[in-house]
């Protein structure tokens, strides 16, 4: 029997995230995924800065799950929340996707993640049409939609759902007319249904969630036997002193609290380049 066989899982979304989550979750866990769209998730924050996200990414996902529990009779809920920005160390665009599941029956909370640079997240300010076309082609338009405003990132009105070249040209002329500087602000639309690359990343985060769910506690067999601590100190290959690399993972069962260690998850020794002594 699969882990959620015969149970309903409710997903709160108005951006069709079920396209990414439903097939993976249903086939792996035996659940039925039910979409709840009676709540406007944009109230919790939008990528276009119309509504600022007040809580952290994880807290926002938890908030969505709380709302889904309230609105539905289901006792398992799932939420997805993404963020976009720059890589912490390099000027490349970066996407972090979280898919958070909560099972009220056992009070289990598990999340899957995708983290990487595979995103078209970008914007441009321009006053000329060829540059608009060049930007559009670079970010995968028209399969990936665009958003446009006059002048700058806070300009009004905002034109969304630009999904074809006719739309794009009309939006450009409309925004230019309203613009004080003659320029328009164009950005990629990061809403899941308007962005196939993001949809794919949500699917990858869902797969990561499934991997975590499928690991069972060796003692009580509860699902979701998870890494709760990462311990550094893999010995250096040259001097055997502890390095910055991972020495072991600690797994803990959320139900019976049984713990296990996985030692040397990344090899027996660290390359000397990670050693404070050999490579200070
Ligand atoms: Zn257990
Ligand atoms: Zn060393």
Tell me the layout of helices and strands:
Layout: E1 8-12, H1 18-29, E2 32-36, H2 57-71, E3 76-86, E4 93-103, E5 108-116, E6 123-126, H3 129-138, E7 146-150, E8 159-162, H4 165-178, E9 184-188, H5 196-213, E10 226-232, E11 246-252, E12 259-263
Parallel strand pairs: 1-2, 1-3
Antiparallel strand pairs: 3-4, 4-5, 6-9, 7-8, 7-9, 10-11, 11-12
Helix pairs in contact: 1-5
Bound molecules: zinc ion (2 copies).
One zinc ion (ZN) is lined by residues 236, 238-239, 241, 272, 275, 277-278.
Quick gist of this model?
The protein is α+β, with helices and mostly antiparallel strands and 280 residues long.
Features:
about 280 residues, alpha+beta, Maf protein, Dna Ligase, domain 1, 3 domains, five-stranded mixed beta sheet, four-stranded antiparallel beta sheet, 5 helices, 12 strands, about 25% helix, about 30% strand, flat, binds zinc ion
Report on this model:
- The protein is an alpha+beta fold and 280 residues long.
- It is built from five helices and twelve strands.
- The strands form three sheets. The protein has a five-stranded mixed sheet with strand order 2-1-3-4-5, sandwiched between helices. A four-stranded antiparallel sheet has the order 6-9-7-8, covered by helices on one side. A three-stranded antiparallel sheet has the order 10-11-12, with no helix packed on it.
- Helix 1 (18-29) packs parallel to helix 5 (196-213).
- The radius of gyration is 23 Å and the shape is flat.
- The protein binds zinc ion (2 copies).
- The site of one zinc ion (ZN) has 8 residues, from loops.
């Amino acid at each position: 029997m699969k882990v959620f066989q015969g149970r309903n899982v409710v997903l709160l979304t108005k951006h069709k995230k079920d396209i990414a989550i439903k097939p993976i979750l249903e086939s792996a866990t035996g659940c039925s995924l039910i979409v709840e769209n009676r709540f406007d998730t944009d109230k919790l924050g939008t990528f276009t800065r119309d509504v600022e996200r007040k809580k952290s990414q994880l807290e926002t996902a938890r908030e969505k799950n709380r709302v889904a529990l309230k609105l539905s009779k289901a006792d398992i809920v799932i939420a997805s929340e993404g963020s976009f920005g720059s890589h912490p160390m390099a000027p490349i665009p970066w996407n972090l996707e979280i898919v958070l599941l909560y099972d009220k029956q056992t009070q289990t909370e598990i999340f899957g993640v995708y983290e990487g640079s595979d995103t078209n997240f970008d914007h441009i300010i321009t006053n000329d049409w060829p540059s608009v076309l060049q930007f559009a082609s670079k970010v995968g338009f028209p399969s990936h939609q665009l958003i446009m405003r006059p002048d700058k990132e806070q300009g009004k009105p905002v034109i969304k759902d630009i999904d074809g070249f006719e739309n794009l040209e009309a939006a450009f002329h409309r925004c230019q007319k309203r613009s004080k500087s003659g320029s328009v602000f164009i950005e990629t639309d990061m809403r899941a249904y308007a962005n196939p690359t993001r949809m794919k990343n949500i699917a990858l985060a869902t797969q990561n969630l499934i991997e975590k769910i499928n690991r069972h506690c060796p003692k009580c067999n509860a699902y979701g036997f998870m890494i709760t601590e990462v311990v550094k100190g893999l010995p250096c290959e040259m001097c055997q002193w502890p390095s910055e690399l991972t020495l072991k993972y600690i797994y803990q069962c959320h139900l019976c609290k049984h713990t296990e260690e996985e030692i040397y998850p990344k090899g027996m020794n660290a390359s000397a380049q990670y050693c404070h002594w050999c490579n200070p």
